[in-house]
Design goal:
single chain, 283 residues, alpha/beta, Oxidized Rhodanese, domain 1, five-stranded parallel β-sheet, four-stranded parallel β-sheet, globular
Length: 283
């Protein structure tokens, strides 16, 4: 059996020493990029390796990219191999932000054809709350070869997105907080607003007050409108830089909806070209 969406802390605990499993700590802080690594070195789930959002899961920023462009494929596959991940490894990913960073690695593994990857429900916060074991010991695994190639059908670039929006061919969902979507505030990017035609379903509405995923019934109800109007392949998720949008992609997978795509560059890439349209609230 493989786990391909969400797993509980109790289930993960049963596999801490399982050689067929790998656990990846994805904790990160946009305002303090090395904080996650520091926290990992102090305490993490046993046998977890650490994935840095900017050094491991992103390429360097350039003048036409968003803040977290996808990394070059071959170096990323070598990194996965260095963590001991092969095509038949069950991977569990976690963070301390309700899965919003871990979901990036969840999506990237699936992008490379690796379906056996699941997000720890509630993350490190829930793990600690249950009193489950932690360690400061950094594991070392023998390097292996990770095989897999990107599935380009899982992503949309800026030019394709702009063309489809003109043709009304997709349902674009912006998962940022409502005030950022409306352009009423912008704490990160240099221009506020959203892409015309995008609707807003913030990723934080996927979780409850304890940072646990809502039930499948609740999640389906939340996305019911877009699922009734289109099929999964016509849905594209975006955020600020292609990270938290993956959380909502994971949710659709969790409730059994396949085919939705990611706009990896997201808002921070869209605004690098001044000719691209921007919409703001009139408030």
């Amino acid at each position: 059996m493989i786990y391909s969406s969400v797993i509980s802390a109790d289930l993960l605990q049963q596999h801490l020493a399982d050689p067929a499993w790998r656990i990846v700590d994805c904790r990160f802080n946009l305002k303090a990029p090395d904080e996650g690594m520091s926290l990992y070195r102090m305490e993490h789930i046993p046998n977890a390796v650490y994935a840095h959002l900017e050094r491991d899961l992103s390429a360097p920023v350039n003048k036409t990219s968003g803040r977290h462009p996808l990394p070059d494929v071959n170096p990323f596959k070598r990194k996965l191999g260095a963590w001991g991940i092969t095509h038949n490894t069950q991977v569990a990913v976690y963070d301390d932000a309700a899965g919003s960073y871990a979901a990036r690695l969840w999506w990237m593994l699936r992008w490379l054809g690796h379906e056996a990857v699941a997000i720890l429900d509630g993350g490190f916060t829930a793990w600690k709350r249950q009193g489950l074991p932690t360690t400061a010991v950094v594991p070392h695994f023998n390097a292996v070869t990770f095989t897999g190639e990107p599935d380009i059908k899982m992503q949309v670039d800026s030019n394709t997105l702009e063309r489809h929006l003109r043709e009304s061919g997709i349902c674009l969902v912006d998962v940022r907080d409502e005030r950022r979507y409306l352009g009423l505030e912008e704490p990160i990017d240099r221009i506020a607003g959203h892409i015309p035609g995008a609707i807003n379903i913030p990723w934080k509405t996927n979780i409850d007050d304890n940072s646990l995923f809502l039930t499948k019934a609740q999640l389906y109800d939340q996305y019911r409108n877009i699922l009734c109007d289109t099929d999964g392949e016509n849905i594209v998720f975006m955020c600020g830089s292609g990270v938290t949008a993956c959380h909502s992609l994971a949710v659709l997978n969790y409730i059994g909806v396949s085919g939705a795509r990611l706009y990896p560059g997201s808002w921070s890439e869209w605004i690098t070209d001044p000719s691209r349209p921007v919409e703001k609230s009139k408030e």
